[in-house]
Design goal:
Elements (H helix, E strand, L loop, with lengths): L1 H35 L7 H20 L13 H26 L6 H30 L6 E6 L2 H6 L1 H7 L4 E7 L13 E3 L4 H8 L3 E4 L7 H13 L2 E4 L3 H5 L4 E5 L2 E5 L8 H37 L5 E7 L5 E7 L22 H8 L7 H7 L3 E3 L6 H10 L12 E3 L1 H4 L9 H16 L3 H16 L7
Parallel strand pairs: 1-2, 1-4, 2-3, 4-5, 10-11
Antiparallel strand pairs: 6-7, 8-9
Helix pairs in contact: 1-2, 1-4, 2-3, 3-4, 7-8, 10-11, 10-12
C-alpha cells in the first residue's frame, strides 16, 4: 500500500511538472510575440516541436533516476537543487541537440537564454512545494491510514524518520502496542496497551493499518495477531530486520517463481556488464602491450644489467578469481639472490635495487600484468591478487576475505586509488582494503570503473607515499 501510494504520487508529480514546463514555455512564447516581436506570427508547428522536445528531455531524465520515487517527498533543498539542474540540462539539452542536428535557427536566442533560468526556478519551486501540496490534497480525510505500531520502543525509534516522511502520504501514527512498562516512547508515541490488548485497541481507535516492527517469530501470540488483522480487515506491514539478525546487508530477488534472499548485489554477474568490462580491458591492454611495454622492457633490462643482473621478469603464483591460481608477471625489481619470496616489500627494503625503487614508485614494474589481462587471468580494475600464502594468512583475520575472489583480480583497484597500497602492517590495513574490494564488487558500474582508471593515471604522475 505504501509503495503504491508513493509511486502514484510520484507519477502525478512528474505529470504536473511536465504541465508546468509546457505552460511556462507557452507563456514565454506569448510574452515574446506580444511584447518583443510585434507583428511576428506565432509559428505553432515549430514551437509545438520545441515544447515536445522539452517534455521528452524531462521524461528521459525521470526514467534515468533509480529509486527517486522513494525520496522525492523529502524537503532537502540541496537535493532539490541537484534534481532541478538535472531536469533543466536534460530538457534544454534535448532541444539543443535537435536544433544543432536540424540546423534550426528559428528560435529566438533572447527567448532561449531567458527561458533557461526561469525553467530552473520553476522546477526548483515545484520540487519544494508541489509534492506536499499534492499529498495533502489526495491523502487527507478518509484516505488517511490510522496506523498502529507493534513492538518495542527502540524499534519504533528506528522508524521515526520514515514515519515522519510517510505522514505526508496519509500514514497517521496513532500509538504503539508494547509489552514494555512505559506510557510513551522518547519520541512521544503513546503506548496504548500490550499484546493482549491488541484487538480491543484496533477496534476502539479505528485502526486501518498495523506495522509489526520486527520480523515475527511464529509463536502463538504473533499467529493470533496476524489472524486478528485478517479478521478485522486491517492492513498488516512487517518491518524486515533480517539485516540486523544476520549482521549483514541483504538483497531480495525473485527468480522463476521463487523468492530468495542474498547477502549482496553482484553487478558483474550480468553478462552485459562483464562484456563492457572486458571491452575496457582490451581497449587499454592492447595499446599498452604494443606501445608502452617494448620501451619499458628495454629500459628495465638496461637497469638490471647495470645494477642487478638476472631474469627480466619476476613470475609468481597468485590467487585469482574463485581462488584459482595463475602465474602473474612483473618486471623484477629485487635482487635475484634473496630467498624471502613470500615477505611483503617494506619501505627501505634492502632486497630492492636502486632503480627498482623508482620502477615500483612509478608502477612501471606492473606493466607486464597487462599480458595477464589479455590472457583473461586479470582485469585492469579489481582486487589486487595476493600470494596464496598471504591469502591463507589474511583469511584468518577476516571472515569475509575470500568474497573478494568473486571477481577477477586487477592491476589497480578502489583500495589502491584510496591510498591503501604497499605493506599491510596490521589487520586494520587488510580490513580497509577488503572493505574497498567488497564495495567495488557490490556497486560496480561503468562510471566507477572509469573513475578508478582515471584516478590511477593521476597517481602515476603523483605517486602515493605508500608506493614502494
Amino acid at each position: 500500500m505504501v509503495t503504491q501510494r508513493t509511486e502514484g504520487l510520484y507519477r502525478l508529480f512528474l505529470l504536473c511538472q511536465i504541465a508546468i514546463v509546457a505552460a511556462l514555455f507557452w507563456f514565454g512564447v506569448w510574452v515574446m510575440v506580444t511584447f518583443y516581436s510585434e507583428g511576428a506570427d506565432l509559428t505553432w508547428r515549430r514551437y509545438s516541436i520545441y515544447c515536445v522536445l522539452l517534455v521528452l528531455g524531462m521524461t528521459i531524465e525521470s526514467l534515468s533516476r533509480e529509486g527517486a520515487k522513494h525520496y522525492f517527498v523529502q524537503n532537502e533543498l540541496l537535493r532539490q537543487h541537484r534534481l532541478s539542474l538535472r531536469q533543466t540540462f536534460a530538457s534544454i539539452g534535448t532541444l539543443v541537440l535537435y536544433l544543432v542536428a536540424t540546423k534550426d535557427a528559428f528560435i529566438s536566442r533572447i527567448f532561449f537564454f531567458n527561458f533557461v533560468p526561469w525553467l530552473y526556478v520553476a522546477l526548483l519551486f515545484s520540487h519544494h512545494y508541489l509534492p506536499s501540496f499534492l499529498a495533502r490534497g489526495i491523502f487527507k480525510g478518509e484516505r488517511e491510514e490510522r496506523t498502529l505500531l507493534v513492538g518495542t520502543s527502540a524499534k519504533a525509534a528506528q522508524l521515526r524518520t520514515w514515519l515522519h516522511r510517510k505522514a505526508e502520504i496519509g500514514l497517521q501514527t496513532v500509538g504503539l502496542i508494547s509489552d514494555e512498562p512505559i506510557a510513551k516512547t522518547a519520541d512521544g508515541i503513546v503506548v496504548l496497551g500490550n499484546s493482549k490488548d491488541f484487538e480491543s485497541v484496533v477496534r476502539a481507535r479505528g485502526i486501518s493499518q498495523v506495522i509489526l516492527l520486527e520480523f515475527p517469530v511464529l509463536n502463538e501470540v504473533n499467529r493470533e495477531l496476524i489472524s486478528s488483522c485478517n479478521q478485522l480487515g486491517v492492513r498488516l506491514l512487517i518491518v524486515s530486520d533480517l539485516e540486523e539478525k544476520l549482521r549483514h546487508p541483504v538483497t531480495h530477488f525473485e527468480d522463476d517463481g521463487f523468492r530468495f534472499i542474498a547477502l549482496r548485489e553482484e553487478p558483474l554477474e550480468n553478462p552485459m556488464n562483464r562484456f563492457l568490462k572486458r571491452t575496457i580491458d582490451l581497449a587499454i591492454s592492447i595499446p599498452v602491450m604494443i606501445c608502452a611495454f617494448p620501451i619499458a622492457t628495454v629500459i628495465v633490462w638496461l637497469a638490471q644489467r647495470l645494477q642487478s643482473p638476472g631474469p627480466l621478469f619476476h613470475v609468481q603464483t597468485r590467487a585469482g578469481m574463485q581462488n584459482r591460481q595463475f602465474k602473474i608477471y612483473k618486471f623484477r625489481t629485487m635482487r635475484p639472490d634473496h630467498d624471502q619470496l613470500s615477505r611483503q616489500a617494506i619501505e627501505g627494503d634492502d632486497r630492492i635495487y636502486p632503480i627498482g625503487r623508482w620502477l615500483r614508485k612509478l608502477s612501471i614494474d606492473e606493466l607486464p600484468q597487462f599480458w595477464n589481462v589479455l590472457r583473461g587471468d586479470m582485469s585492469t580494475v579489481g582486487p589486487r591478487p595476493h600470494l596464496v600464502e598471504h591469502n591463507k594468512q589474511f583469511a584468518i583475520s577476516l571472515a569475509n576475505y575470500h568474497v573478494r575472489a568473486f571477481v577477477k583480480p586487477g592491476i589497480t583497484g578502489l583500495a589502491q586509488v584510496r591510498g591503501f597500497r604497499g605493506e599491510a602492517r596490521s589487520s586494520s590495513d587488510i580490513e580497509s582494503r577488503v572493505g574497498c574490494d567488497l564495495e567495488y564488487l557490490e556497486n560496480w558500474n561503468l562510471s566507477l570503473e572509469c573513475g578508478i582508471i582515471l584516478r590511477t593515471c593521476a597517481q602515476l604522475l603523483m605517486p602515493s607515499r605508500n608506493a614502494y
